């Protein structure tokens, strides 16, 4: 059993509280700006399952934002997943869901169109999501 991406959501806002993922207005599929290029105050929320035999190992997540039309890389975001000690309350053999929140506010989208967010964990494709960026007319 290996680390896997169980959820990937584009949302208005997300945060982690007491090890739990809080998502507000999740499932965004379109970002609209009054003028492009633009950055958006949105977040990517993810849940990563870490099996018990890998709970204290370091894992590397890389999110790549690409233009679907040109395949041009827009942004690369690196996230380190690492737990020092086994979390309290887990039974022997029980894995853990690790919440991840990444703000996208510093990513500038240059033009209208479809974009893909690809997630790799430990250099293996874990999942992706597609969304559109549009300019308000």
Give structural notes.
0% of the residues lie in helices and 58% in strands. With 137 residues, it is mainly β. It has one domain: Immunoglobulin-like (Sandwich). A five-stranded mixed beta sheet has the order 3-9-8-5-6, with no helix packed on it. A hairpin with a 2-residue loop joins strand 1 and strand 2. It is elongated, with a radius of gyration of 16 Å. The mean pLDDT is 91.
In short:
With 137 residues, the chain is mainly beta. It is built from no helices and nine strands.
Architecture per CATH nomenclature, i.e. the level-2 architecture: Sandwich
- Which of globular, elongated, flat, extended, rod-shaped describes the shape? elongated
How is the largest sheet built, in terms of strand order?
A: 3-9-8-5-6
Major sheet characteristics: 5 strands, mixed
Overall residue-averaged pLDDT value:
91
Please supply descriptive tags for the structure shown above.
four-stranded antiparallel sheet; 137 residues; mainly beta; Immunoglobulin-like; five-stranded mixed sheet
Secondary-structure map:
Layout: E1 4-17, E2 20-26, E3 30-33, E4 43-50, E5 59-67, E6 73-81, E7 96-103, E8 113-121, E9 124-135
Parallel strand pairs: 3-9
Antiparallel strand pairs: 1-2, 1-4, 4-7, 5-6, 5-8, 8-9
